[in-house]
Description:
- By secondary structure, the protein is of the alpha+beta class.
- The chain is about 50% helix and about 15% strand.
- β5 (about 135-140) and β6 form a beta hairpin.
- About 15% of the residues are buried.
Amino acid sequence: MDTLDTKELEAAAEGILFAAGEPIHIDRVCLALEIGRSEAEQVLRRLMDHYAFERRGIRLVRMGEEWQMCSSTDYAAVIRRAFEIRRPAKLSQPALEVLAIIAYYQPVTRAQVDQIRGVDSAYTVGLLLDRKLIEACGRLQVPGRPRQYRTTQTFLRSFHLESLEELPPLPGVEDGGQLRLTGEEEAGEDAKE
């Protein structure tokens, strides 16, 4: 491909993101535009800033190393009316609790979530899986091999986060937010090392 100037790079990146319709890894943008990662970051950040500054109906959002074009939340009500989309149901307090536990302590098993909350979370974990806010990410190496869960890109997008590092610190947690495992769970952790 011939070398593109700045405006052409922005237009090409915009076309790629629009055509993708889903998050696209920055490495794919670099490969397609035949540019380095830092130049691709600059191009995408300029696009993001342009959409925000111009108060456009679209936004460019970053989620870790992936980028996605989406509609602006400023116009959500109008867009919803245009497509007769119902407002998505809000998450209940228990769902938010489970989601927060998984976000801060991931990867985490349902039993660990139940231990923190003090109640059964099976239904709520299923609900969060259905909404694609969490996903299974392996199994703990203990008897019964329980599934472990982590948050997804949908979680980051839904809460307007680029990465998990943007989560606010947990109040009253001094050891970096590490979940304390007990009994068989510790044995399983030792076995993995």
